[in-house]
Amino acid sequence: MNTYSQMQSHFLKIVGLSVLSIAVVNCTPSAQQIKQAVEKDPSIVFVAIEKDPEKFIEVVNRAAQDAQKKAQQKGIDEENKKRNEEYANPLKPEINEAGVIFGNKAAPITIVEYSDFECPFCSKGYNTVKQVQAAYGDKVRVVFKHMPLDFHPKALPAAKYFEAVGRQSPEKAEMFHNKIFENQGELKTNGEVFLKKIAKELGVDMKKMDADLKDESLMKKIEADIEEAKKFNITGTPGFIINGVSLRGAYPVESFKEIIDKHLKK
Fold first, then answer.
1. Quick check: 171 and 102 in contact, CB under 8 A?
2. Is the pLDDT at 26 greater than 50, yes or no?
3. Interior CA angle at 160 toward 187 and 142, to 5°?
């Protein structure tokens, strides 16, 4: 299809939206009849545009906004439906109780997070989770899992360092995690130099860390996290599962509270 044909096709789609908007509020021929007439002779619309271009643009914009609102509402409705299904049949991520867990290990609420250390949206997710932890205290624990994306080259090395530090100390691993998200720009700029600097500041055994970084089982742990995220249809970062109920994206703290409060009421 040449450029002119593409422009004409796109234009006719916009015209279709405006015509449908008019048909809804006026006693006119059917939308199908108008559509056929316009496709047969587009000059009908050109004349109308020339007569009152401002009105035409207003109608098109209104139709586009209405379509966008309907699409957004449809997405919200589908998300709520899926969430209600998960309340009844919770997702079951694997949790290593002997591994790195942020917060009270006996907490009634478990937030499993699939994240990418280089992702700006994950940085927002980090700040939101901090707000949740501050609000709920010992009622919430966080299990941090990895989903390093291919277009974030520093994310995988950061995930490996986190796991290596975690083998020495869950507390140091949490501090390591915090420092990365609080200085994400430095990770992007300095990569492993930055990661080693944090580890030294935290008093990590550097020789043991270097040895663990070469351990194949460490990479297998990260790959298992990625596969688990895919199994739950989490395709982007961050993704969260709160006592079996998913949030896909950097949702505001209110969305977390809604799910947590519903679980706590039970």
1. no
2. no
3. 90
Nearest in space to 168 (alpha carbons), one of 118, 215, 105: 215
47-50 contacts, C-beta under 8 A, 24 or more apart: none
Return the percentage of the chain with pLDDT > 90, whole number.
68
Structure tokens at 133: 């932890």
Rounded to 5 degrees, what are φ and ψ at 26?
-135, 155
Structure tokens at 151: 């277009």
Q: CATH number for 102-265: choose from 3.40.50.10140, 3.40.190.10, 3.40.30.10, 3.30.565.10.
A: 3.40.30.10
Q: Is 161 exposed, middle or buried (0-12, 13-18, 19+ CB in 10 A)?
A: buried
Number of neighbouring beta carbons within 10 Å of residue 114 = 27
Alpha helices in the chain (DSSP H): 3-25, 31-40, 43-51, 53-88, 120-136, 155-168, 170-182, 184-190, 192-201, 206-213, 216-231, 253-265
Pairwise CA distance, residues 191 & 119, whole Å: 14
Among left, alpha and beta (phi > 0; psi -120 to 50; other), residue 98 is alpha
The DSSP code sequence of 168-204 is H-HHHHHHHHHHHHHTHHHHHHHTHHHHHHHHHHTT-
Question: pLDDT per residue over 61-93, tens digit each?
Answer: 887 787 777 776 776 677 778 888 999 999 999
Q: Give 244's DSSP letter.
A: T
What is d(CA 132, CA 146) in angstroms, rounded to the nearest whole number?
20
